[in-house]
Amino acid sequence: MSRITNLSRRDFLKASAAATGALVLGFRMGQSANAAVAGGDIVFNPNAWLEINRGGEVIIQVPWSELGQGALTAVPMLLADELEVDFGKVQVRKARNDPRFGNMGTGGSRSVRTSWDPVRTAGATARVMLVAAAAKRWQVPVDECQARLGVITHEKSGRSMTYGAISAAAAGQEVPVDIPLKPKSKRTIIGHDMPRKDTPDKVVGKADFGLDQRLEGMLFAVVARSPVLEGSVKSFDDTAALAVPGVTRTVEIETGIAVLADHSWAALKGREALKIEWDDGPNTGLNSANISERLAAADPAKAPVMRGDGDSAGALTTAAKVVEAVYELPYISHSPMEPMNCTARITGDRCEVWVPIQSVTWGESVAAQYADVPRENVTIQPTYAGGGFGRRLMVDYVAETVAIAKAVGRPVQMFMTRQDDTRHGLYRPTSRHTLKAALDDQNRPIAWTHHLAAPSISGQLNPERFSDGRDEGAVNGASNLPYEIPNIEVTYSMVNTPVPTCWLRSVYNTQNGLANECFFDEMARSGGHDPVQLRLELLPKDSRLRGTLERAQKEWGWPRKLNSGRGQGTASHSSFGSHVTMMAEVSVGDDGWPRVHEILCVVDCGPVVHPDGLNSQIQGVVGFALSALMREEITIRNGSVQQSNFDDYPPLRLKEMPDVTVITIDSEDDIGGIGEPGYPPLGPAVLNALFDATGKRVRKLPIAGNFKG
Amino acid sequence: MAQLTLRVNGKSHSLDIDPDTPLVWVLRDHLDLTGTKYSCGISECGACTVLVDGAAERSCTMPVSDAVGSEITTIEGLGVTELHPLQKAWIEDEVPQCGYCQPGQLMTAAGLLNRNPHPSEEEIVAEMSDVLCRCGTYLRIKKAVAKTVKGGKS
Prior knowledge:
The complex is a heterodimer of chains A (709) and B (154).
Chain A: H1 9-20, E1 42-47, E2 50-53, E3 58-62, H2 71-83, E4 91-94, H3 116-138, E5 145-148, E6 151-154, E7 159-162, H4 163-170, H5 199-202, E8 219-225, E9 232-237, H6 239-242, E10 247-253, E11 256-261, H7 264-273, E12 275-279, H8 288-297, E13 305-309, H9 312-318, E14 321-329, E15 341-347, E16 350-355, H10 360-371, E17 378-382, H11 396-408, E18 412-415, H12 418-423, E19 431-439, E20 445-454, H13 457-461, E21 487-494, H14 509-526, H15 531-538, H16 544-556, E22 567-575, E23 578-588, E24 594-604, H17 611-631, E25 636-637, E26 640-641, E27 659-664, H18 679-694
Parallel strand pairs in A: 3-4, 8-18, 16-17, 20-21, 24-27
Antiparallel strand pairs in A: 1-2, 2-3, 5-6, 6-7, 8-11, 9-12, 10-11, 13-21, 14-19, 15-16, 15-18, 19-20, 22-23, 23-24, 25-26
Helix pairs in contact in A: 1-10, 2-3, 3-4, 10-11, 14-18, 17-18
Chain B: E1 2-8, E2 11-17, H1 23-30, E3 49-52, E4 55-58, H2 64-67, E5 71-73, H3 85-92, H4 102-115, H5 121-128, H6 138-149
Parallel strand pairs in B: 1-5
Antiparallel strand pairs in B: 1-2, 3-4, 3-5
């Protein structure tokens, strides 16, 4: 064995986040490659996105990771529509790290919305160059030529030419600027249901996930990590581990002891046979109860004001009535179906990495650091990811893998078991929300206050930068309360803990959206108002969110006549540039377990690029958010995460899945994201419906046994 | 270690292996059939499901020695000359998102149809509830199985 680094895992994440500014998952358009003749078979490469080869094959590079959200299809659709090619023939590639794409990171529901202008422009630019080259060869005016399905035609002379035939000449054209993009009426791919590019491989077992990577001479590695958060290895004995047939060696890294073997099972058996004495470190007294107490003890008077409209304190003292409630949410785990893993090969001063990852550029940075090679010598090849949900924005598993590969001098695939993935995850922060509403004598709100106490994901990663306690990200979905109320105050108490945290699908909107929309329901009902009517009265007339609520009201027939025992609820929330209203119909079964029968979802995300993809994302996020709401909870006992697998952290199953109807308000308004915005309204719509059905408010999640007995 | 012969997708493979090795690792690491997925290792999620003599079984908790003498079918062997009707329905209905659980979903559905070619919707839901999907493709799974039962019509 050998000891190779001495940074703790938390220190590593802090250091590397600071070094790369990786929290800014920014993006800039791939700069032109000067339309130069590219290497090999590629003859036309006008920008980072597009390559056309001699055979006329169109290859589109996608810098957004394919996590299941459909980026590998929807982003190329943008380009292909403007390029005027047959989408069925377009080939797509998962782009490697490439500085032309800027900081590559897949998060914030950004893939399609930030591609909307630059990628369409990339396609249009290439089309104009191809057509110009053809016109030049034919000595005819450009505007007499037309491009369609990869062929340029000049009708007057009856001539035509494929993109492949003219692509080398197109490479010599000047790169045009200010090209008009197609109006909606002319789009033939955008807004239409194109077949997903990844589906055929995914139904025959050929899709290459991270765990499917195989390299010559590769070893499989698993890591024994401290069961207690921030614990470390005091000493270990690997004699029995090394005796397991197939185990080749062990190596100590900063997070624990890696066991390497010729195949996965031997690595697992070897790890079981390790004898490790742990130094449990400072957190053996950490329990979920302590953390809840710390959140409850956070003083709102000392909390930074993140939004302050008017005089909420004054309005609360003079109000005819004050409504108040506290909502508490647990830590939850992403638990994508494919556990964290990474494959790395270091050869001389080069490092190659194959990995299911969201933060490609951050991955490049930590690989360079741990391989001790220049960044430009690092290749990050994203694989298909078996889910991500934000977990793969963190690159702890890349660092571990590269560290092991560096130490052993062989290609390595490090994988987490499900137990590792659950126990050594980074979690959606727990949170506590204290909400108050001051009502006038008509029971209309004149003030709304929301005090959030929660760990800060950014603050835990980067304590110096957030030393003033102001994390704007933590109040996403709280500070942008959409209702017209004269006095609004949102305060935030940053309560950081040793429990590692990470962005999870819609991030703090998961908590703030739920607290807002449940409390709105409480406020409305306590004053005798219909919750939909009161929302409509308080949402600005031109608000797109209001548009989704009006449409939902009509489609649902709110308030709908229900069978006995059933309840209905509603919630509306804007996030990631999109606006969503959900309505839910629920009941509680004889077993005391809630049943969600139906969800209506109305979405305004501006232009819809791939309608069926949107439908799939909304169906999916309903399942994902409902799963968390019903029973997902990560708890800490004596400094250890208590859950470990799908038996004690049980996701939703098909039999619990409601019917989902998705309606989109297709418009040319600003484009929004779709992977995340469906999450926030699901929970409050269901909880409000459960109140309607039972008269019971659930304010502490998950629902779990709340309706039993 | 033991000498074993394993029949997978119609071919015989000789292995010198720890007979306790779970079948999933044998398929993935020794036979390079990576279509079968590891996810939980405790038979909770079903991502590793394969057919053993036509019946859906969890390969993550089945010692390879228990599979000797049986005909094992993995996702790679489900539709060899042409796609299985379930795979066709999966493509038509665009079932997968991340796709990681889908081999297990498909093999579970194939096992169901082998046993019961005309399951009711309740039977489909009951059987397919055994296989987890974090992306939430459940409604499409249900639809695609039902469609296959009806000969490819929705």
